[in-house]
Write a structure and sequence with these properties.
The structure is a single chain. This protein has three helices and seven strands; from the N terminus they run H-H-E-E-H-E-E-E-E-E. The chain is of the alpha+beta class and 124 residues long. It has one domain: Nuclear Transport Factor 2, Chain: A (Roll). Strands 1, 2, 3, 4, 5, 6 and 7 form a seven-stranded mixed sheet that branches.
Length: 124
Amino acid sequence: MSTQEVADKLVAYCRHGRFSEAVEELYGQDITSIEPDGSPAKEVHGLEGVKQKMQDFNNMVEEVHGMEVSDPLVADKFFSCTMKMDVTFKGAPRSTMEEICLYKVEDGKITYEEFFFTPMGPQG
């Protein structure tokens, strides 16, 4: 798959809340995932680590009220998109989380992802 094809598929999966399927189909075994300083999991390596990080995030969420994902912007082996989530985390008030997501594609698989957002404090 080309970078554009991977980008289009990832965005489609995310828009429908099908994150697990996206990871299973589009992510490489040796993926590196980077979050901003202050995030629960700053850096994760490997597909199983990304799956665990995703499960840990899901365990923190009480309810997702809505999600928006932009069209991907593609250049060479890279693409980015924005994601905006209206969410209630357990023990916290409802909030909006916005981020820029950057991905690298090699041999038809996502091998690197990095997320840019301002982490919430301990009180949400």
